[in-house]
Structures are given as C-alpha cells and as structure tokens.
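>> Question from a student workshop board

For tomorrow's exercise we were told to take the sequence and the ligand below, predict the bound structure, and bring the output to class. My setup keeps failing. Could a helper post the expected result so I can at least see what it should look like? The ligand is S-adenosylmethionine.
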Amino acid sequence: MITHSDQLSLFADKTSPIQEDTVKSWGTFKDSLRAPVHRWFTYPAGFSYKAVAHSFERFGIVKGMSVYDPFMGSGTTNVTAKAMGIDSVGAEAHPFVYEIAKAKMEWEVDKKAIRAFIDHLNINFESRYNDLNGDADFSLCDHFPELVLKCYKKETLGKLLTLKKIYDDYEFHQRESMFIFVVLTALLREISSAATGWPYIAPKKEKITSEDKDALLEFNALAISMLDDLTYIKRQADEEYIKSKHRLIFGSSTDVSAYLSNESVNHVFTSPPYLNNFDYSDRTRLELYFWGFAKNWKDITDKVRSRLMTSATTQISRNDPKYLLDEEIKTNSPEIARFIQDAANKLSELRKVKGGKKSYDLMVIGYFNDIYKVIKEVYRVLKPDSSALFVLGDSAPYGVHIPTDRLIGEIGCSIGFKSYSLEILRKRGDKWKANPQRHGVSLQESIVILKKE
Ligand SMILES: C[S@@+](CC[C@H](N)C(=O)[O-])C[C@H]1O[C@@H](n2cnc3c(N)ncnc32)[C@H](O)[C@@H]1O
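>> Workshop helper replied:
Here is what the output should look like for this input. Compare the format with yours to find the bug.
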C-alpha cells in the first residue's frame, strides 16, 4: 500500500549502485555543446551524443538496425545514429525544433551554393540595410513582438532583419535553405545584448559578451564554421553513413501508428520532458517570434504549447477533462494510478496555501496520462529482445517527491516490458539546499532501462 509519507521508498529498490565508469561512459550534456553539428543549436538535450553512442555499443546496435527517439528535440540521437551508419526515426511535436533537427540531419549541403549565397549577402547587405533605415514608414515594431525588440540594440536588430529579408528573398534549394535557417537561428542568441542563454530569456539582464558582435561578421563566421562541421562529421562518420535511412516525424509520440509499424525498431534512446515545469514553447519564444512561427502568447499556445505533452503548468486549463487520470492507467496499473492520484491530491491541497497557486496537481496527472501513451507506443514498435532507455530527472513540486524514473519503469512493466533497471547519472539540486523556500528532497537524474522480451 502506498502512502504519502512513504513516497521516497515507493517501489521495491531496483536501483543499481552508481558505478563511476558507467557514469563516465554516459558523458554529460556539455560534450554536445562542443561537438560539430551537435553544437549548432544549444537546446537542452537531456544527454550527450556520447551517451547515445555508448548505448548503441552496449546494446549491440549496429549498421542495418534502426533506433527511435520519441522526443527527438534537436536530434542528438538521430545525428549520432547517422554518424554510425545506423537507421533512425525521431518524433518531435515542436514545429521549430523539428526544423532544427531536420537541418542537422542534412549533410549533403552544396558548399558552392552556400558560398554563393554568402557572397550575394555581403554584396547586397549594406544597400538593403540602408533601404530599411531610409524608409520613413519603417519601424522594427511592425516586424517583431516586444520580446525580440527588448533582446537587441536597435542597430543589431535592424541588421538581423536585413539578413532575414535577404534570406527570405533568395532562391535556394531546400537543403541549403535549411542550412542557412540554422545559421541565422544560431546567431540569434549569440549576438543578443540580453541574457538569452538557456533556459531563461531575460530581456532585462545585460549580456556584456555580445557588445561588439556585428550581425554580418558573425553570420559569415558561423556559416563557414558550420560548413566545416559538415566536412568534419562526414570524415569521422562510418563510411557507409550515406546509405543509412532516417525518418523524422513532425507529430506527437503519444500516437505514431501512422508512421511506425509494430516491432519495427531495434532500440529506443530518448529524454522526455522532465516533470519540472519547463515549458519548451516558452523557452523558444525568441526563435518562434523572430521567424514568425508565432506573434504572441496565444499563438504560441495554439501552435506549439498545446501540441506538446504536459510538463508545465502554463499548459494547463483547470477545467479541461484531459487532466483526469486515464481509466486505462487505473485499470492496467492500479498501484501506479493510486500513487499518482495521491500525489495529485496532496498537491491540490498544497496549492491552496502555497504562493503562485501552481497547478502542479493537474500537471502531474497530465504528464503521466501522456507518458503512459508514449511508453505504450514504444513497447509496440520495439522488436522483441530489445531495450528502451529514458534519460530523465525526478522532481518535487511543492516538496512532494515524484520519482518519475521509477514510475516510468513501473509503467513499462505494467504495459508488458519484462523488467527495468535504473542507473543514476547525477544528483541534482544541491545548490538550492541553502534556500529556505526550496524543499529538502534530494533529486537525481537517471537512465531508466526497459527490457522487452
Ligand atoms: C528533453 S527534450 C529532448 C531533447 C533531445 N534529446 C535533443 O537532442 O535535443 C524533450 C523534447 O520533447 C518534445 N516533446 C514534448 N512533447 C512531445 C510529444 N508529445 N511528442 C514528441 N515530442 C514532444 C519537446 O518539444 C522537446 O523538444
């Protein structure tokens, strides 16, 4: 019987002790910030490309086999698979992030065409920029929402708009267009005068390091270094990488039946959103606004936020029936359902007395309703005798500990997986311990390994 007071020792302890070498082999997210192609967009990936390679080696995934990442993000799993000549599938529900992954998977970019574009840009830049400024009716406010205006000095934003306009007007082939799209995207956070590092965009905070960065010069340098990255990754890749097949799905991994048949992949490596109130649509507002994917908060909600699985309170409308725990979970996994419902009930009580009145209660329900569907799909598409690895952290909203890693393991087993184990990557949140507003629960990041018979 599960009780609130017993939350930390909820399920039988199936955790393997932390082995120093195991932890090292999984690497850290920082590896990807330095690695060619992976570094093109510093999205919070959840894991290092080294972790993906390690997983393939450890579970015997080789050329001719295929791997699936149901939360593809910017494509770390797929880029790594391609470099090893392994087939891959990825699903991503965020429209802008999906475009980034697509571009990172296009390695046969025509360098001559890119150089021709860079020349064209440099020849025309000054006159296009002067045209904008000379136009009495021109105002940056007509082009960008306030957040974007606040993140740049006027001159820099004028130059960024000039780059965008020249890009929009140029006749590209698709590959080259996608490549330049990522170059321009990478430039956005690089030359912003506001603190635009991940995860938060803080327009009021000054970032001194970008003071002298000129949009055009930085664009030129980035484009060339990214072309070099392509040369490098292809040189390092398995010589048959070009024959590998990759399918990137724009859609929710809660249902991939239209794209993936039963028992069609050999391995799953993924990092789902953590249950930690991180709103992926909000964190990418700068890019969404710059490119015109969205113009305001409502747009972001309609076009992005509502497509993603629940992991943030900003996604929740309290009257929506989707925040009742699914009957299927109650029937098939009663113990887990009871635990989730108990935690939600407790959070619902705490909400009444805590500042911010956050809907953590419904966030927890929504999260597990969604992740349950994803795990079911993962089970369906995996071939027999294979594994699915989920990299994620647990959390403690309002101090109520939710052992997301174990719950995912237990859900997996109730769906049909033969067993699960956990490998702890790191302890998290210690720096908050001195803060009296924070809970004292010690959190961790781990890898849940689900095994299918
Ligand atoms: C931790 S990130 C994964 C990052 C990824 N490992 C990478 O290399 O960039 C989780 C991702 O899941 C995506 N996501 C959220 N809900 C989704 C859903 N229902 N289907 C597919 N992707 C979703 C988010 O947009 C986010 O990009």
